[in-house]
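INFO batch 0412 | record 1 of 1 | parsing
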Amino acid sequence: MTVRDPILIVGGGLGGLTTALALARRGRATRVLEGAPEFGAIGYGIQFGPNVFHVFDSLGLTAEVLAVADSPPAVLMLDALNGKELVRIPTGAPLRARFKYPYIIVHRIDLHNVLLDACRRSDAIELVADAMVTGCEDRGDRVTAATADGRAFSGAALVAADGIRSLFRQKLVGDGEPRPVGYAALRTIVPMTELNIDIPRDSVVLWSGPGYHVIHYPLRHGAQFNIVAVFRTSTHAEKADAATYRAELEQTYRDAHPSVRALNAMMDFGWRRSVADRDPVRHWHKGRIVLLGDAAHAPLQSLAQGAGMAIEDGLCLAEAIHANDGDFVTAFRRFQALRLARTARVQLESRAIWNWLLHAEGVGRDVRDATVADWDEARIYDCLSWLYRGASAG
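INFO prediction complete | emitting tokens
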């Protein structure tokens, strides 16, 4: 084989496209195999901390990302029962002064398109849609991926960026389905002109209740409003009609603040998912195949870092491959060593935050409230420093 043989990337999401761009920057050809009929993204909002901008800077995409994103002045945590402000994290100028880069909120489609357009501008990246990978073979000197329609693609190595239910994780780790946490999540986007509730419209706001929360923030420079409702339910994995979903939502949030109930009344129920994550594992690679992003280390949403970790992975992996030219086993071992503790910490801290901070109940709420009452800006920034200062690319 020669260095001109492409590296196969399975999955055309944020992590997969970032990996392709980072490899192209180092002169490595890639072929991105996307199972959907065309490259695209789920049409809802997403948050990113300053850590992802170390990657965007390296790829020369910071200006393009900022053009489609917004930087809210604060992240607020309110009591979902009485509306009391529990935590305020300034995410405007003070955060940027501390961590160099901003905290952003962006429509996932808009960010995906920034990466996709950059890929299309690169002669080193081939984008192949409607290529659902169903199997692979590591032949020692190359990898071959088979697709559902009978095609076969050969490459120097394979990067599995195929999400939380990764086919390749089952081959490499074999730990079954993701770990459900007993919660369901609903998402919706409405035009800002339809919002007639007296709530902050420029910030990220999380309403924390006993066994549930609601989070909302603006998108597309204030034109749209993103709402997410999350709640514990025994039906988290079940399918039902909109009327059943709405009755369940209203019952769960019956004691919540009127603004929370009004937000839930705007839900369209077109998107409902069971919330799950993965246990941290030590082995992400075998031979010429390596896991990336949620396939390797899917977290809960508590720190808003699932996509951020996948984006960081992409640059780190590309740099490891570049530094160990042609020796994929060594490159993958280096990538895993650099990323394991950081991503596992995100997974484990996200679980802890999910339970004691976001969904505290009974006396636990009193303990939570007394604890966060002592949090000031400096203390919060110190606690976030390990995460927001970014990570080594290798």
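INFO post-check: The chain has a mean pLDDT of 96.
INFO record closed
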